[in-house]
Design brief:
about 200 residues; alpha/beta; Rossmann fold; 6-stranded parallel beta sheet; two-stranded antiparallel ribbon; 5 helices
Length: about 200
């Protein structure tokens, strides 16, 4: 039975690297992976999934109004797909997560999604919240804070180096913008120091 998977972490955990490696494994065995990424994430170029270690691959893009079930069903009819891989899953809408669940349930295709769990304010993204509720399999990809503890949070840095405490949930950026931290150091960074 095909499943809907959510692989989640903070920034710099290697989510895109793992996605590209898994998709390569399918290709190497003569199977067909179908890759998707968010339309508005153009850091590696429009329609490209790229990792910070230099791997990249072309992908179909999705926007908030894309019907993912219809898109994947049409692609599957044109050329049989063996697995769907979706990067930047935090940018999915709740409706799109349900569409991906239908891909697994009705088309029998495994759907591997990769994305952030929380934003810089410590709040769930819409897509992540829906995936946490609906995915058949949740997998945390671990990375570490500068102190060595598991990083579960992320801060957004302004160009002047200060930590942002408010703003739009979505701002595309990489190492120059976001830093992964453990909860304790995230609290310190946003000014929520422990009481003495």
């Amino acid at each position: 039975m095909a499943k809907l998977y959510f692989n989640f972490s903070t920034m710099n955990a290697g989510k895109s690297t793992l996605l590209l490696q898994a998709a390569h494994n399918y290709s190497e065995r003569g199977q067909t992976p179908f890759l998707l990424t968010a339309h508005h994430d153009t850091r590696a170029g429009q329609g490209r999934i790229a990792s910070r270690i230099g791997l990249s691959k072309e992908a179909v893009t999705f926007a908030p109004d894309t019907d993912l079930f219809a898109l994947i069903e049409a692609a599957h009819k044109a050329q049989p797909i063996d697995c769907v891989f979706l990067d930047e899953a935090q940018f999915l809408t709740k409706a799109q997560v349900w569409q991906l669940a239908r891909v697994a349930d009705d088309l029998g295709l495994p759907v591997m999604t990769y994305g952030l769990r929380v934003d810089f304010r410590g709040e769930l993204f819409e897509g992540s919240a829906a995936l946490l509720a609906l995915a058949d399999d949740l997998r945390e990809i671990r990375t570490i804070c500068h102190c060595g503890r598991k990083a579960t949070m992320v801060v957004r840095k302004s160009p002047d180096g200060s930590v942002a405490k408010s703003g739009e949930q979505v701002q595309i950026g990489g190492n120059e913008t976001y830093v992964s931290l453990c909860r304790r150091h995230w609290r310190e960074a946003i000014g929520d120091s422990p009481s003495t």
